[in-house]
Amino acid sequence: MNDEKTMLGQKILKIKAKLGMTWKDIADKIGYSPVWTCAACLGQMSMLPETAQKTADLLGLSEDDAATLAAIPYRGSLPTTVPTDPLIYRFYELVAVYGTTWKEMIHEEFGDGIMSAIDFDMTLERQPDQKGDRVRMTLSGKFLPYKRY
């Protein structure tokens, strides 16, 4: 199934470029955030059937494509080896360098648990800076304590 979702994601990227649309344009029309909309179109989220149909109608996709958008994905599209795309690698580098710091600080503040990637929000915005614009990302995930049983 993920091959179908990955192939559909590539198709959507081409259509999006041809139409001159942004993720915000698409998100505004289907009623979700740009980050979630992008993740769903690239195959990492499942859309509700009505959202999938609305997206298909907007982008000129088939009924089969709408069904693929609604299907539950196999999440985690990156290979298990170190990514080579420079932008994606920088996130890998962030986890490699700061992962243990994030873990320690979250545990100190909240206790033994994790930050959810399911009950999760993310925003991405441009932050003007005289030395060159910066990327500001805000990640917000529900804290889930480990259960003792």
Top keywords for this entry?
single chain; 149 residues; alpha+beta; 434 Repressor (Amino-terminal Domain); Cyanate Lyase, Chain: A, domain 2; two-stranded antiparallel ribbon; 2 strands; 18% strand; globular
Biggest beta-sheet profile = 2 strands, antiparallel
Task: Specify the CATH class of the largest domain.
Answer: Mainly Alpha
Mean of pLDDT: 92
- What's the structural domain tally? 2
**How much helix, percentage-wise, in residues?**
40-55%
Structure notes:
The protein has 149 residues and is α+β, with helices and mostly antiparallel strands. The protein has two domains: 2-70, lambda repressor-like DNA-binding domains (434 Repressor (Amino-terminal Domain)), CATH 1.10.260; 86-145, Cyanate Lyase, Chain: A, domain 2 (2-Layer Sandwich). The protein is built from six helices and two strands; from the N terminus they run H-H-H-H-H-H-E-E. The chain has a two-stranded antiparallel sheet with strand order 1-2. Helix 2 crosses helix 3 (34-41) and helix 4 crosses helix 5.
Question: Helices, strands, pairings?
Answer:
Blueprint: H1 2-19, H2 23-30, H3 34-41, H4 49-59, H5 63-70, H6 86-110, E1 113-127, E2 134-145
Antiparallel strand pairs: 1-2
Helix pairs in contact: 2-3, 4-5
Give a quick rundown of the structure.
The protein folds into 2 domains: 2-70, 434 Repressor (Amino-terminal Domain); 86-145, Cyanate lyase, C-terminal domain (Cyanate Lyase, Chain: A, domain 2, 2-Layer Sandwich). Helix content is 52%, strand content 18%. The chain contains 6 helices and 2 strands; from the N terminus they run H-H-H-H-H-H-E-E.
